Amino acid sequence: MVCSAFVRRASTAINIIPTGPRTRRSVKIATGRKVAIKKIKVGQFKDGLDMSAIREVKFLRELKHQNVIELLDVFSSKKNLNLVLEFLDTDLELVIKDRSLVFLPADIKSWMAMTFRGLEFCHRNFILHRDLKPNNLLIAANGQLKIADFGLARDFADPGYKMTCQVITRWYRPPELLFGCRYYSTAVDIWSVGCIFAELMLRTPYLPGETDMDQLKTIFRALGTPTEDDWPGHTKLPDYVPVGQFAKTPFRDLFTAASSDCLNLLGKCLIYDPRRRISAKDALNHPYFFALPYPTHPSKLPKPAKKEDAVPLEEVDGNVDQNGSGPGVKANQPNNKLKRKHSSDELGSRPVARRLDFTKS
Amino acid sequence: MTMASASEPPQASSSTQHSLYEGSTQYLHWRFSPEQLGRMRHTLNEDAVSAIRNAFESDSLGSSTSVSFLSADEEHLLVKLYVGKISQLCGHFRFPEEVEATAASYMKRFYLKNTVMDWHPKNVMLTALFLATKTTNHPISLESYAAHIPRTVPSDVLDLEFLVAQSLGFDFAVWHPHRALWGIWLDVQNIPDASIEELSRAYEAAVGHVRAARLTDAEFIYTPSQIALACFSIASPTLASAWAHAKFPSSPRPPVLEVLDPIKTLILRDGSPPDVEAVREVDRRLRLCKNPEKIPGSNAYIKKQQEKERKADEKRRRKAEAVRIAMEDGDPFGNELAKKAAAADLDDDDDDD
């Protein structure tokens, strides 16, 4: 056993708190800090420790940032690899889907700032996340957003070395990957962030394609079919197929209440040419983040009402779920009735009650 | 094993003031002084010898007196030989330099925590290399890996994988001098008046020195960029100095040049493969002083396994008892169980395998 004193305490924990279906279990350790333990079974794969576990451990061991989930420790028990992660209450997908919550422009700005900060740190460390989507952005009790699930992450390849284009969940996948591009960069993650940005405003996925081909069509319908000027060379990409001519829908038509700074940044995240797409660092310096309203303090951000604790202990190991939302640490889907009741209380305490729902416009 | 990152200071706020390297696990967990390295290896060796001596004695009394155990230096010699063999194997598989360098680091780190008398470096080498292919994103199937290595079956590689990963503290990411050297190579091409022939000759020679440095303790003591510049400086002191002056135009004597001499000495002194005859003698003695508890079939091994099983049984029994009592109390998650569990040092990870 290579467990440190820290984990010894965890494994003799006195209080086992049931958590959601994919977070294995959470335990309170002697320090009083709640942690989540993600268990990865070893020995069921013919090639030993599997790649997604290795990637997750490798990158999370190196990354320490307030907007990246913290891997507190790794220990083994028999033939299991256990990742001790900080415990996080919920994720951005649950927040977006919770219809009882009202988002203010300042709230969206706050989530975007935290996402870009975490992502800038990953990119500064030469790491591509390659699976950004709302339910991989977890939310701590204090409101801090944390990038999680590094099962598809990798270091930047050297120039001239191929990478797989089969990454990133379809709705958040950039057009260059859909065209089979094998040489790509941090711009792939930025596209995903752009999609998340739009989703925060729309409260529904922005580009929900049904197949990979349909995904391209969906993108072009929203943003217009790219011309050679928009994106030089894209017709030469390995899997390029013409999917029809569509005109761009002006952002203004869809995002009626957004500020022009906001739409400007959104547009820069969704530029077709990956070389011209904005970087995480430049995004953080974008006027959007310096204009009024200032980002909401994380602790004041809307979040789903606390779930009841009395759900039975459930647990699934970390390897099974590749297609779903991916292994991450998250709470149970909150009970709907309860949620409504609680969150209406919460609503009252928030200063503004203007509802920013763009779905009906 | 020090892997509780919980005790480390939070890095988040400092990340902008420090270099990225200072946030790496390599900087935090795998940096030592030469004296520390010597002490660690010495202590490790002493503890191993006394443990193995006990194992021999408990098997049959007085049997350890005739055994000549390996010294820390002899262990180190053997490890060095197999670190060198990694590069042969990588040539055979045509693995990229990244895989080779990573495997060598894994191997050297492993033997800062383990003794060759417990785990033979040949097996550890095969596992370290296989693990490195995966952690550097160049995975190959275990079957084809094992098929290309004589007298090796997949289980030989896999059996130690978890042990190796644990010994590394799961610090899979390694920063290498050859990457830093590549950066220097790109930089020096901007130096005016240097002929490209001269530059590429120096670079090629430096690459050789970086490979030699892998056989030494340099990576535990210095940063990858220091090692890279030292290697470049062995190849061409003038170009190395020109590079440093171009990097630090305002200082007449760039401080980075001051640290190069001890690194160069270290690489030139320790950077060649060990004498095969000397190692053969060590390996022959290793066969006689291997930890009997790690040799399947030996009395000590069987005894150890039985002891393990007895303990596991005991644990299961205690646990079942605790659960039974709790059920009788009608509250499976009650405080009673929790207290008993804590008292019995109950490991709740074992119940659902």
Structural notes for this entry:
The complex is a heterodimer of chains A (361) and B (353). Chain A is α+β, with helices and mostly antiparallel strands. Chain A starts with a helix and ends in a 12-residue tail after the last helix. Chain A folds into 2 domains: 126 residues, 2-Layer Sandwich (Phosphorylase Kinase, domain 1); 200 residues, Transferase(Phosphotransferase) domain 1 (Transferase(Phosphotransferase), domain 1), CATH 1.10.510. A 5-stranded antiparallel sheet of chain A has the order 1-2-3-5-4, with helices on both faces. Chain A has a 3-stranded antiparallel sheet with strand order 6-8-9. In chain A, strands 7-10 form a two-stranded antiparallel ribbon. Chain A contains 11 helices and 10 strands. Chain B is built from 17 helices and no strands. Chain B is elongated, with a radius of gyration of 25 Å. Classes of the chains: A alpha+beta (361), B mainly alpha (353). At the A-B interface, helix 1, helix 2, strand 4, strand 5 and strand 10 of A face helix 5, helix 7, helix 8 and helix 17 of B. Chain A: Its EC number is 2.7.11.23. Chain A: It is an enzyme of class 2 (transferase). Chain A: Keywords: ATP-binding, Kinase, Nucleotide-binding, Phosphoprotein, Serine/threonine-protein kinase, Transferase.
Fold blueprint:
The complex is a heterodimer of chains A (361) and B (353).
Chain A (H helix, E strand, L loop, with lengths): L4 H7 L3 E3 L7 E4 L5 E8 L9 H12 L8 E7 L2 E7 L3 E2 H6 L7 H20 L2 E2 L8 E3 L5 E3 L6 E2 L19 H4 L8 H16 L9 H12 L27 H4 L5 H10 L10 H5 L51 H14 L12
Antiparallel strand pairs in A: 1-2, 2-3, 3-5, 4-5, 6-8, 7-10, 8-9
Chain B lengths: L24 H5 L4 H26 L12 H22 L3 H14 L10 H15 L6 H6 L6 H5 L2 H7 L9 H12 L7 H18 L4 H4 L2 H12 L1 H11 L12 H11 L5 H14 L9 H30 L6 H9 L10
Helix pairs in contact in B: 2-3, 3-4, 3-5, 3-15, 4-5, 9-10, 9-12, 10-12, 12-13, 12-14, 16-17
